[in-house]
Amino acid sequence: MAEFHEGGVNLFYQQNSGIETAPLQDEVILFHPTTGKFFVLNRTSSFIWSSLHEPATPKQISEKIQTSFRKTEDSDVELDVDAVLQQMESQGLIVKTER
Fold first, then answer.
1. Angle subtended at Cα 27 by Cα 42 and Cα 10, rounded to the nearest 5 degrees
2. pTM
3. Comparing C-alpha atoms, which of 28, 86, 29, 25 is closest to residue 61?
4. pLDDT along the chain (99 residues), means of 10
5. Alpha helices for 1-99 (secondary structure H)
6. Using the 8-state DSSP alphabet, how is residue 79 labeled?
7. Degrees to nearest 5, angle at CA 20 with 14 and 26
8. 9-94 — its CATH code?
9. For the stretch 25-51, what's the b/e string if a residue is b when 16 or more beta carbons lie within 10 angstroms of its beta carbon?
10. Residue 86 CB neighbour total at 10 angstroms
């Protein structure tokens, strides 16, 4: 997995504070009031979302998933986390921070 660096500083991701959330069993519904879009997150994406309540690196999130879901193939988890983070960031659901 690629480490995220800008100017030599590790970057963390966290939830965009303007996003509204509602739980739905093992899933989460997000509403982005600026764009008017709704998003339904599956169980794994919901886990990633909740992990971003506080700033976290992709590696930290991957490690939490491996522990919680008992995943053994590190590379698959890290790639999946990177893909979800990129999608969430592109939709304005999360932001990068230096911590």
1. 65
2. 0.85
3. 86
4. 47 96 93 97 95 95 88 76 96 92
5. 43-51, 58-69, 74-90
6. H
7. 80
8. 3.90.930.60
9. eeebebebeeeeeebebeebbbbbbeb
10. 12
